[in-house]
Amino acid sequence: IWTHPANQGRQLEALKRSMQWWLSDRKQLTPIEVESFGYKLLLYSDSCRTRSVVYYTPLCDYDSMQFVQRYLRPGDNFIDIGANIGQYTLLACSVIGELGHVCAFEPFPKTVERLKENITYNHLTQAKVYPIALGNINEFVDFTVVQDTISHITTSSDLSRDKKIQVPCRRLDDVLEHCPYAIAKMDVEGGELAVLQGSKSLLSQQNPPVLMLEINGAFQRYGVTKQDIIQFLDEFGYSSALYEADTNRLTFTPDVWGDVLFINREHVGQVLDRIQTAS
User: Fold this and answer.
1) 183-186 vs 77-81, strand pairing mode
2) Hey, which of 1, 17, 185, 226 has its CA 20 to 30 A from 49?
3) Which phi and psi (to 5°) does residue 175 adopt?
């Protein structure tokens, strides 16, 4: 809390806010409202995402969220894969306006309802919810239900006693209209490569030109390495980069971890121009 960049200059306020939330009745069923990118984000006490927003402000993904703000333009189309309760959906809508569109994918039914609630509460008619998982197959898959923000398509390493549900899984190529998309944000707890494999037609058209992936140890549960993802996207012309919001700087490097951008090499100039001329 003290060192998070969104709290700099307001550390004591952040500690007070976090302590008040921690001492409050966190079993209450009614959501709290938090100002988020010009909208009202409804947060429930049983969600890990709520803790992130309370501790770190709505700008909890400090660098990634500011990249999205600076890169998007009115009328753009945004793909939110693993939308959860809709933070990035609200963020995108605040920039793209009514002429743009957000395609928000979230498979877990309880979270889908909260995502829809946030969209409806803020009258975001430009956002459409797809209550499905994404991968490289079109069939039903088992999905964990007890792990909140880290729920995922099950693997053999998941304990047999873990509660699961079946959800529909689709290939992105078979779901989306092939219109231009500006960026896809992906947070699928290790299933990134499968989602990308189901998006080959889009990627072959450099669509979208920017991908935002979370690169961490979660993909190991599927037998995937960081290099697998980098190599797969390299074949479609994408290079990995890290973004630093405070300097508004992109650094292209294969040595990446955390929130990583993959930018099509033919669109690097356009991306740089957008973030450097953002209002």
Assistant:
1) parallel
2) 226
3) -110, -45
Q: Among residues 184, 260, 200, which one has the least CA distance to residue 235?
A: 200
DSSP string, 17-78: HHHHHHHS-TT-SSPEEEEETTEEEEE-TT-HHHHHHHHH-TT-SHHHHHHHHHH--TT-EE
**Diameter over CA atoms, the chain:** 52
Q: Which of 80, 87, 65, 73 is nearest to 245 (CA)?
A: 65
Compute the distance between CA of residue 206 and CA of residue 24 in angstroms, rounded to an integer. Answer: 48
Higher local confidence (pLDDT), 19 or 261: 261
pLDDT digits (tens, 9 = 90+) for 82-117: 999 999 999 999 999 999 999 999 999 999 999 999
Global confidence as pTM: 0.86
> How far is the C-alpha of 245 from the C-alpha of 256, rounded, in Å?
16
Q: Is residue 182 a contact partner of residue 208, using CB atoms and an 8 Å limit?
A: yes
pLDDT tens for 144-195 read: 776 554 555 555 555 555 678 899 999 999 999 889 999 999 999 889 999 9
Domain ranges across the chain: 1-58, 61-135+171-276
Give the architecture-level CATH label for domain 61-135+171-276. Answer: 3-Layer(aba) Sandwich (3.40)
Residue type, 147: Q
Dist. CA 172–CA 126, nearest whole Å: 19
Task: Name the most confidently modeled range: 7-16, 68-77, 219-228.
Answer: 68-77
The strands making up 164-170's β-sheet, listed across from edge to edge, are 133-134, 164-170, 139-144
d(C-alpha 105, C-alpha 5), whole Å: 28
